[in-house]
Automatic annotation (TrEMBL):
This is Death domain-containing protein. The gene is 109592235. GO terms for biological process: signal transduction. It comes from Amphimedon queenslandica (Sponge). Residues 22-66 form the Death domain. InterPro entries: DEATH-like_dom_sf (IPR011029), Death_dom (IPR000488). The lineage of its organism: Eukaryota, Metazoa, Porifera, Demospongiae, Heteroscleromorpha.
Length: 305
């Protein structure tokens, strides 16, 4: 236990000393690491106006798994890179960290047993198809947001708060209270959709939005057809574009947590920071004729070159 604590503190101190530029954005950085809002408030109260001290404490809490790690995953360099880029607002620093620390590597002397990534692949054509899907998804999402009248916002938030599992997936340890607190601070439909798109929905995880349309806009047939059309485009991605390999050899993709010769499914995706929760929602998006429930599914990040 002592060795683990020492490694945590050493990593935190070296991180702060080298990466002071993101200290001013320590709250955004903490949010990207999924540190609990209540913990962030305590850190701010204890450290005052010292951004570097706050950043130090954020890392201490995160490395000690003082967050919902069972849902969001254990501390790892992959999450550090994402948090530095998105929360810290420093893509160059994130790339520097990625070069020095292999993304699958864990922090604090622990290794993750929940590996969901296979070796990356180079496929510009497929990445372009995902890019087009994301554009379509964003366009329809904006249409949906604009279709909701402001007076519906309280009812929509109430609906979301009572359907937390739909946001997080089937995880017994989800933090419903944290989500409720975040939603309580939302004042506009635009802000609500920003939160949803940043944390809870994606180009393959959009069932919740369709539910909202069916509940609150039952007569908007144009919007329903738009989402139905998008579903068909996503289905085509799986069936005809090679976005999912259903009979891949685990060894060929560098997967080591299954017996040699095991056949697995490989999902080719656009990012290398998806979590186990994303894996669940991705699997739900796979057409039934392709999905094999008892076969392991892994993500493979598509590189440009």
């Amino acid at each position: 236990m002592f060795a683990v604590k020492c490694s945590v503190l050493m990593i935190s101190m070296s991180f702060i000393m080298k990466f002071k530029p993101i200290a001013a954005r320590w709250k955004q950085f903490a949010n990207s690491l999924y540190v609990r809002p209540a913990t962030i408030d305590i850190i701010e109260a204890n450290c005052g106006s010292s951004c570097e001290s706050c950043l130090h404490k954020v890392l201490e809490h995160w490395l000690r798994k003082d967050y919902n790690y069972e849902f969001f995953g254990s501390p790892c360099w992959r999450r550090v890179c994402v948090a530095v880029k998105e929360g810290g607002g420093d893509p160059a620093l994130a790339e520097e960290i990625a070069r020095k620390h292999p993304l699958p590597e864990s922090i604090g002397g622990e290794s993750t047993t929940d590996s969901i990534y296979a070796l990356p692949v180079k496929d510009v054509r497929l990445l372009n198809e995902i890019y087009e899907l994301q554009w379509d998804f964003s366009d329809i999402l904006k249409e949906t947001r604009d279709a909701f009248k402001p007076e519906l916002l309280p009812d929509i938030i109430d609906y979301l708060e009572t359907h937390v599992p739909a946001l997080l997936g089937p995880n017994k340890n989800y933090q419903a209270k944290e989500i409720t607190e975040e939603f309580n601070n939302i004042q506009t439909t635009k802000d609500l959709f920003k939160v949803l798109q940043r944390k809870y929905i994606s180009w393959f995880n959009y069932e919740l939005i369709v539910k909202l349309v069916n509940v609150f806009l039952p007569d908007n047939h144009l919007l329903k057809r738009a989402w139905s059309g998008y579903k068909e485009k996503l289905k085509d991605y799986f069936l005809n574009s090679g976005g999912l390999l259903t009979d891949a050899n685990a060894l060929e993709f560098g997967i080591k947590d299954v017996p040699p010769g095991t056949k697995v499914m490989i999902a080719k995706v656009d990012r290398d920071d998806y979590t186990l929760a994303d894996l669940f929602f991705f699997r739900r998006a796979i057409p039934k004729e392709l999905n094999i429930p008892d076969v392991y599914l892994y993500f493979s990040f598509i590189r440009i070159g």
